[in-house]
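Q: My labmate handed me this sequence with no annotations at all. I'd like to see what the chain might look like in three dimensions before we decide whether it's worth expressing. Could you predict it?
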Amino acid sequence: MSTYITKIFDRLDRICYDRYGSTANQIVEWVIEQNPGIEGQPIILAAGITINLPEPPRELTQPPVIQQIFLWR
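A: Here is what I predict for the chain of 73 residues:
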C-alpha cells in the first residue's frame, strides 16, 4: 500500500489515473471506499490530505470486455 499527500489543484480521479494507469472499472470508487471521509471533499482537493492507495483487487484490474459490432458485412 502506498500513500499520497495531495498538492494544490489535485483531483482524486487524476491521482488514481497516475497511480493505477486508468480510471476504468470503478477504481476511483474503490479508492473512495478505502478512504472514509474523502467523499465529502470538493472535486479540487485541498493540499495536505493523505490518501491511501493500496493495490487494487484483481477484479478491478481486469479490462472490460467489449463486443465487436460490425456495421457492414
